[in-house]
TrEMBL record:
<dbReference type="InterPro" id="IPR048037">
    <property type="entry name" value="DmmA-like_C"/>
</dbReference>
<feature type="domain" description="Dimethylamine monooxygenase subunit DmmA-like N-terminal">
    <location>
        <begin position="63"/>
        <end position="104"/>
    </location>
</feature>
<keyword id="KW-0001">2Fe-2S</keyword>
<dbReference type="InterPro" id="IPR054582">
    <property type="entry name" value="DmmA-like_N"/>
</dbReference>
<dbReference type="Pfam" id="PF22289">
    <property type="entry name" value="DmmA-like_C"/>
</dbReference>
<dbReference type="GO" id="GO:0004497">
    <property type="term" value="F:monooxygenase activity"/>
</dbReference>
<keyword id="KW-0560">Oxidoreductase</keyword>
<feature type="domain" description="Dimethylamine monooxygenase subunit DmmA-like C-terminal">
    <location>
        <begin position="114"/>
        <end position="157"/>
    </location>
</feature>
<dbReference type="Pfam" id="PF22290">
    <property type="entry name" value="DmmA-like_N"/>
</dbReference>
<protein>
    <submittedName>
        <fullName>Dimethylamine monooxygenase subunit DmmA family protein</fullName>
    </submittedName>
</protein>
<keyword id="KW-0411">Iron-sulfur</keyword>
<keyword id="KW-0408">Iron</keyword>
<keyword id="KW-0285">Flavoprotein</keyword>
<keyword id="KW-0503">Monooxygenase</keyword>
<keyword id="KW-0479">Metal-binding</keyword>
Amino acid sequence: MADTIFSTPVYPAEAARVAASRRILVTQDNGLPGAERLLTQFKDQGGPLLVLSPRSVGQRFEEMLGESLGKAQVGTRLYVCGDEAFLWQVRALARQAGLLDEEIEMFRSGARRRLYCVHCSTLQDIGEVDSSVCTGCGVRLMVRNHFSRRLGAYAGVCLDPNDPRGEGCA
């Protein structure tokens, strides 16, 4: 992909050292190096810590996260570790629960990310690729560096307007 632009998210390497009345760590997988680093940092800082992971709580993950965020008091900070698609999914849930952007820190670990087809509005997960075929309309998409924070996805636009479905390709 080309150079990053203003809308492309930038993720920190470590958590800010900010006081918190409670910390919630949501990790895609407890074994992620970023999650392990955060756990060590938070144990050193002390204070209440809740750790949630879809792998550890299974089907009830979103329900448990919603309950925890719904009960969050002023001073609660949310830390999310996982691939980009996971980060923005959890961020959307946190924003719906009333957390501010300043109370959410995200740490990327993994290649999966989300792509939004501007032609049919389909959202799909992709890896670190420059182009993809839309699962909704079949158009060959170029993955733009433009990132929508509202959708948690990169914009996918028609790669070749003269041959949108790639029929001319061998």
